[in-house]
Structure formats: structure tokens, C-alpha cells
Amino acid sequence: MHEDKTIKVSNPGPLKENRRLVTVLTVMAAAGLVCFLAGLKVDSTRAWYNFLIEYFFFMALGVAGLVLAAVHYAAGSTWSVTVRRVAEGLSAWLPVSLVLSLAFILAIPALYAWDLPEHIHLWHEKHIYLCKTCFMLRQFLSYAIWIGLGMAIVRNSLRQDASGDVNLYWRNKKLSIIFLLLFALTITFMSVDMLMSLEESWYSTIFPVYIFAGLFLSGYAACTILVIVFRRAGYLAEAVQDHHLRDMGTWLMAFSVFMVYIGFSQYMLIWYANLPHEIGYMIERSQGGWGYLFALLPVLKWVVPFVVLMPERWRKNETVLLVVCAIVLVGQWLDLYWLVVPAFQTNFVWFGWLEAGVFVGFAGLFGLSLLRFYRKNSLVAHRDPRLEECMKGRYLHV
User: How does pLDDT run across 316-353, given as a tens digit for each residue?
Assistant: First the structure.
């Protein structure tokens, strides 16, 4: 009887030091800070809503890394062992994001009408929930769960690299189940507080699910890009095979369908009910130039990933995956832009130096955070008990 050969994966180790990249990212972060401070002088409201867009965009990528790792453990997944560490690295942004969240102490009066004293009597009991103190407390509660519980999963994963203790895998499986349940609550807080309450008279019970769908889709896209970059650089050339890329592409394609399903469900129910306090939100985002962006979003976040990645050979193609993932991330950013800016501008606002500058600043900080993680830790969980099974590719393909 034929016996399978044991497959061993050597430890690729952490990223090598790249001073030029560190310098570029540092300059980006500094330039972004200068642009933001200049924006506060020129147009403080525009500066703050751009801060909100970038803050939420990168915060979602950071917590998405924890969600992907937790889903891996909770589901007992095998195929994703060699790419899980890359996803875990995204969580390195969360401590920085927590510090940046303190800026909302200053931003709330400029962004949220519910903070104005003359508006308190208009929204009945909503002021009990929508107040600056409660807003910040829910922020800190969310980060306490994400950093305390979610990053404990990452720490156990890193400890397993050193000890090889199989019990850490089972401990992470239990922690992941708890984390995912609490994540559902905290992302609801974040999406309602930071995005839905920009229009304090509007509400949608599907809105937090829509935000989660975008978070998961963009997180997978970012993770896929990093995996391919590291693979081309030689770090993951041995650990990540074509079947791993195919499965990442499959998940990306499948979740794009979930995203458009949730988005259509929200729009259809609002359109069908035709309630005055609901339709205003969609009307102002469908006119004054915003309608073109509204029509573009499902193309970028659904049509492109679903159609392009349908053939299996394209899901194994690095270049195709890179292009599709970049388009998805652009679509996610534009989605946040479409959700936030119409609350302040009736007509479509073209992107300018302030939008570009704040994005570049956040991207620089985000890159420095991830670089620090990947330079300290191996890019593959090389002592995971299911690594060999992952390399053989003997699991149920999704």
C-alpha cells in the first residue's frame, strides 16, 4: 500500500529589515499629519470626515485580521494554516487605532449633530445612547475585546512557534468562538455609532451586517495581496501553493455575493416600505452626483471579483488576484466615502489633496505597524499541528 510522504515546510522566518521602506512609510505618515493639520485650518469639517473615513477603513482591516484567524480556529480549518499568520499581522494596527480613537473626543462636535445641545430634544430617547461619553466608552469596550481577547489568539499562535504545544491550538479554538460572538456585538456598536449616527434620524437593522460584509471582504483582499507579495519575495514560495491561492480567491468571490446580497436587501426594503424617515438617506445618496458612485460600488465589490474569479485558473493567477483585490479595496474605500460624505455635502465632492493626504498618512502608519509585526515574527505558523495536512491539500475545498 502506498504511503504519503511527509511534507515539511521550512520556517521562512520574519521579514528582513528594509530601511528604505521604513523611510518611505515614515515620510507618508508625516505628510499625512501635515495635510490633516492644514485641513483643519482650511476646512475643519472636511478634515474630520476624512479622518473618520480613513480611521474606519484601516480599523476594519485590522480587526478583519483577527476575524479571519478566529474563523480559522473556530471552524477547524486546515487549508488556511500557511496564510493565517499574514492575517494575524493585520491586527498589529489595532493598538495604534486605539490611540487614534482618542481624536474623536475633538471630532464628535464637528461630525455628529446629536452632540449639539439644540438637537437633544429632537430625537427623543436617542440622546441616552448617542452622547459623547457613551460613544467613547463603547469605543474603549470594543478595543478591550479586540486587543484583550482577539490578540490573545495571536499571542498563543506565536507562542506555538516557539513551544510547539498542541494545547495552544485547542485553547485558541475556544477563545475564537467567544471572540466571534463578542465581535458581532462590538462591530454593531462601531457601525451604528461612527457611521449610521451621522444621520441621527435614520436607522437600518441591516446596516451593521452590511458593514461587517465590507469588513470581511476588504480584509480578505488585503490579506491576499500581502500573501502574494510575500510569496513573490520568496518568503512564502514554499508554504503557499496554487491551491491556497485558489481557495483565497474562492472565498473572495463567494463573500462578494454575500456583500451584494446584504446591500440589495437593505436598499430593497427601504425602497419598498417608502417610509419618510428611511428613504431620505438613500435619496440624498442617489442624486447630486452621488448616484454614479452608488451604481459603481456593486461593480467594484461584486461584479469584478465574482466574474473575473469564476474560472479556477484565474483564482490561481497571482496577477489577476492582485488586480481584483486592489479593485475590491478601492471599492470599499469608495463605499465608506459614499456613506460618510453626503451627510455633509449635498453634491458630489471630488477627491482633492486633503483626501489623498489623510489616506497617505494612515497608510504610512498602517504599513509601519504591519512591518513591525512581520519583522519580529515568522510569516508561517510553522509548528501548527495541521500544517502538513494543509500542504498536502487534502481537505474539503470551499
Answer: 999 999 999 999 999 999 999 999 999 999 888 888 99
Neighbouring residues of 230: CB distance < 8 A, sequence distance ≥ 6: 15, 86, 236, 379
Domains of the chain, by residue range, sit at: 19-392
The pLDDT assigned to 389 comes to 83
pLDDT at 208 over 80: yes
Query: How does DSSP classify residue 378?
Result: -
What residue spans of 164-275 are helical by DSSP H?
167-194, 207-232, 242-273
**DSSP three-state, residue 212:** helix
- For residue 43, report the phi and psi dihedrals to the nearest 5 degrees: -155, 90
CA distance 194 to 272: 26
Would you give the DSSP letter of residue 115?
G
Angle at 295 between CA 292 and CA 298, to 5 degrees: 145
**Positive/negative CA dihedral, 73, 220, 254, 151:** positive
Q: Are 270 and 282 in contact (CB under 8 A)?
A: yes
What is the pTM (predicted TM-score) of this model?
0.93
What is the chain's mean pLDDT, rounded? 90
Cα–Cα nearest to 343, from 183, 221, 169, 197: 197
d(CA 153, CA 176): 7
Contact 346, 280 (CB under 8 A): no
Q: What is the pLDDT of residue 2?
A: 40
Which grid cell sits at 159? 507562542
